[in-house]
Amino acid sequence: MLPHERELVKKLEGKPFTLLGINSDGSRSALKDILEKEKITWPNIQDESPGTGPIAKRWNVHGWPTIYILDHTGKIRFKDLRDEKMEEAVMKLIDEISKPGDPK
Fold this sequence. Notes:
Layout: H1 2-11, E1 21-23, H2 28-37, E2 44-46, H3 54-59, E3 68-70, E4 76-79, H4 83-98
Parallel strand pairs: 1-2
Antiparallel strand pairs: 3-4
């Protein structure tokens, strides 16, 4: 997934879009190493061990990766889309906020 995510972040630079990673694979130093090795430039947050961290508990995450796509109001609009379907969903939300009126 990382190559597609890198491409999406680059493609949508300057648009109202943020990709946020929540990582539960070890320590903060391990996360730093992963971010550097994989050339991950988008924000990432360190949670505790899989399933036990406050973020995983609050969002009811039981599998990795779990992907939520939120609109500009913070409402979850899509869950667990990958690759082209994820990009289509993001583009739909960006398109909604660039048009006058409320999203449907």
